[in-house]
Amino acid sequence: MPGARSPVRAIEFVITCEHGGHRIPAPYRKFFRGADKLLASHRGYDRGALQMARDFARALGATLLHTTVSRLLVELNRSIGHRQGFSSRVPKALHAQLLRRYYEPYRRRLEARVAAAVRRGKRVVHLSCHSFTPRLAGVQRRADVGLLYDPRRRGERALCVAWQKLLARDGTLQARRNYPYRGSGDGLTTDLRKRFAGHDYTGVELEVNQKFPRAGSARWRRVRRTLIATFAAALDAATV
């Protein structure tokens, strides 16, 4: 019927955290002897990201997929063959084994979860939770929050524009879009966009400045509450 509105599709939320810890499983610890400080740094994991992901999943009643294996052992947020896929400490002879044990099962679980929701007629909104170091290579990052997305995907753009506006209106956090990284660069959400159409899948990578989890529990808790509340409001304001 001309002019009729399409029925609103139910949303299924999927929350992920690819850098939730700096754990090195026992068979590989010999390669990281003396590297405790490195593992506990931003190079080893995303401080606060898993706590944030758990809060989002709880608030939204969402599926949570995460790992606590260090990104220095195997990087789950990069495509196979990417130069940052493995630390130089990991022998090349072990790369294929690590992909089989950690990378491929994680990617398959997530892809299967998205595909199952799409088959049920739902639209998937995937939030990949990360954090970034306040200073990198001597350069100060000038944002509290980064919203990473592909500008060519209308639903992702609408959601992140609305989310940024709501955060600006709240006034407690400075949010920037596609900062400190590009949302269309190599990553997990980019790979899923190749597999699922824009009307089925909306993928956003949330980046939060690590100064907040370092600041202490009260301030960090307020930041997480603000992000969750504004995200929910942005979904209502945007057509994803």
Describe the structure in your own words.
By secondary structure, this protein is α/β, with parallel strands linked by helices. It has one domain: Zn-dependent exopeptidases (Aminopeptidase, 3-Layer(aba) Sandwich), CATH 3.40.630. The strands form two sheets. A six-stranded mixed beta sheet has the order 2-1-3-8-6-7, with helices on both faces. Strands 4-5 form a two-stranded antiparallel ribbon. The radius of gyration is 18 Å and the shape is globular. The N terminus is likely disordered.
List the helices and strands and how they pair.
Layout: E1 11-17, H1 36-39, H2 49-60, E2 63-66, H3 95-119, E3 123-132, E4 135-136, E5 139-140, E6 145-148, H4 154-170, E7 175-177, H5 188-195, E8 201-209, H6 211-215, H7 217-237
Helix pairs in contact: 4-7
Summarize it.
38% of the residues lie in helices and 17% in strands.
Specify Rg, calculated over alpha carbons: 18 Å
- What percentage of residues falls in helices of 4 or more residues? 25-40%
Largest sheet, spatial ordering of strands: 2-1-3-8-6-7
At the first level of CATH, the class is Alpha Beta
CATH superfamily: Zn-dependent exopeptidases
In total, the number of strands is 8
Structural class: alpha/beta
Examine the secondary-structure arrangement and name the CATH architecture.
3-Layer(aba) Sandwich
* CATH fold label: Aminopeptidase
- C-alpha geometry: globular
The averaged pLDDT comes out at: 95
Number of helices, counting only DSSP H or I runs of 4 residues or more: 7
Q: Topology as H/E string?
A: EHHEHEEEEHEHEHH
Overall tally of structural domains:
1
